[in-house]
Amino acid sequence: MSSIESLKIDLKDLKEGESLLEFDLDDGFFEAVDAPDIRKGNLHTVISIHRTDDTFQLDFHITGVAIVQCNLCLDEMEQPVEAENRLWVKFGEEGSEDDDLVTVDEDEGILDVAWLIYEFVNLSIPIRHVHAPGKCNPAMMKVLEEHSASRRGEEEGEKPVDPRWATLAKLKD
Ligand SMILES: [Zn+2]
Q1: pTM (2 decimals)?
Q2: At what angle do helices 163-172 and 138-152 cross, to 10 degrees?
Q3: Fewer CB within 10 Å, N side or C side of the chain?
Q4: Among the residues of 33-137, which ranges form H helices?
């Protein structure tokens, strides 16, 4: 998973009350988390942490852009990101995994937020994300149009699959 040291927060070091952490993350972040869906981007992440004894309330505010694959033409596109997420962390036995409550071993006291940030960004991206009208890759749009045209006239049995379409279908998987 992540090898970004700055994103490993030492909770034991945090004072009672409010702490503010800020990170600027670029393509290297997405490479480090080995992100399956987003390969590049630029994110400004602010984490405000409120500590009460051994419980931490974390508020993530993530803004920037993520580079994702357009659903239509499969080219890269910039998806604006604006995510607000809250999470609680407490010291204790590992294993009580809840979506909003993370348990961190007290002896270690380290919370790696890299994957959390990635998940929050990923969740903020709409399921259907496409280029603005007219901004799709024209060559790919032509292939898609030809394909749907040939589909329409293809009632009489199997035709060999257009190799470009086969490539496209593979990419979409
Ligand atoms: Zn597109």
Answers
A1: 0.79
A2: 110
A3: C
A4: 114-124
